[in-house]
Design a protein that fits this description.
The protein has two domains: 2-53, no CATH class; 68-252, CDP-alcohol phosphotransferase transmembrane (TM) domain (Four Helix Bundle (Hemerythrin (Met), subunit A), Up-down Bundle). 72% of the residues lie in helices and 4% in strands. The protein has ten helices and two strands; from the N terminus they run ββαααααααααα. The protein starts with a strand and ends with a helix. The model has no long low-confidence stretch (mean pLDDT 80).
């Protein structure tokens, strides 16, 4: 609402915009029926609520976009990996290995689409790293379960794989907790080049172990075990770097 006032010259009227609450508190309303004043106040509140609900609905619609749908599809591969112990034939292992490869490649696709099409959302920032950790962690756990029992001659391979799986999953949990603490303090712990390198090593190791049987003359299982050791070393070191940079251990040393 507007309120006429005299300018400093005394002959020109100017107007200022007044908030609705100030307008409704004017003494002139004392002579008006209360229901009229209440109706105007209620109308203002209803309009503000409608705008807020419309904005919230629009935000929800934008959250379910193309890159987020691709991320959800990647998460959908996780339940399939749970059947790995039942898929021991060569063709079944190749099938699940190629499925993992497609899922891993979607990590590059959804990120590229989100940045190129300007479709980055808060939901996407949550789902993308969650999908990666679920995919790798589930694959490692089910690979350990699929290995021979401890009574067989290859029990040490199962122990070695389980140990490296604990290192990788434990580090992911630790860094996730660190990012949560840093976020609460307004600090962003961005992914480093070393962290991206360990992700590549993890994916290569898991893919080779999923194939299990030799492929094109390459002993995929043995190669996968070597790459898993490399991935575990990179995972452990990159995790230490994150903590050292955040807590300033390098400066103190």
């Amino acid at each position: 609402m507007s309120d006429p006032q005299l300018s400093s010259s005394g002959d020109i009227e100017t107007y200022r915009i007044r908030p609705i609450d100030e307008f409704l508190n004017d003494e002139c309303w004392d002579d008006q029926p209360m229901n009229l004043k209440d109706e105007m106040a209620e109308s203002s509140d209803t309009h503000s609520l409608a705008e807020a609900q419309a904005g919230h609905a629009a935000q929800k619609e934008r959250a379910l976009n193309v890159p987020n749908i691709i991320t959800l599809v990647r998460i959908g591969v996780v339940p399939v990996l749970l059947f790995l112990p039942l898929m021991q034939s060569q063709w079944a292992r190749q099938l699940i290995a190629w499925l993992f490869i497609v899922a891993a490649l979607t990590d590059l696709l959804d990120g590229w689409i989100a940045r190129s099409w300007k479709m980055v959302t808060r939901l996407g920032k949550l789902l993308d790293p969650l999908a990666d950790k679920l995919l790798i962690s589930t694959a490692l756990i089910m690979l350990v379960v699929s290995e021979p029992s401890t009574n067989s001659p290859g029990w040490w391979e199962r122990w070695a794989m389980a140990s490296m799986a604990v290192i990788i999953i434990g580090r992911e949990l630790a860094v996730t907790g660190l990012r949560g603490i840093a976020s609460a303090e307004g600090v962003i712990v961005a992914a480093s080049g070393l962290g991206k390198l360990k992700t590549v090593a993890q994916n290569i190791a898991v893919i080779a172990l999923l194939f299990h049987y030799p492929l094109l003359g390459v002993p995929t299982y043995e190669f996968g075990m070597v790459m898993l050791a490399v991935a575990a070393a990179l995972t452990l070191y990159s995790g230490w770097v994150y903590f050292a940079n955040y807590f300033g251990w390098r400066e103190s040393s």
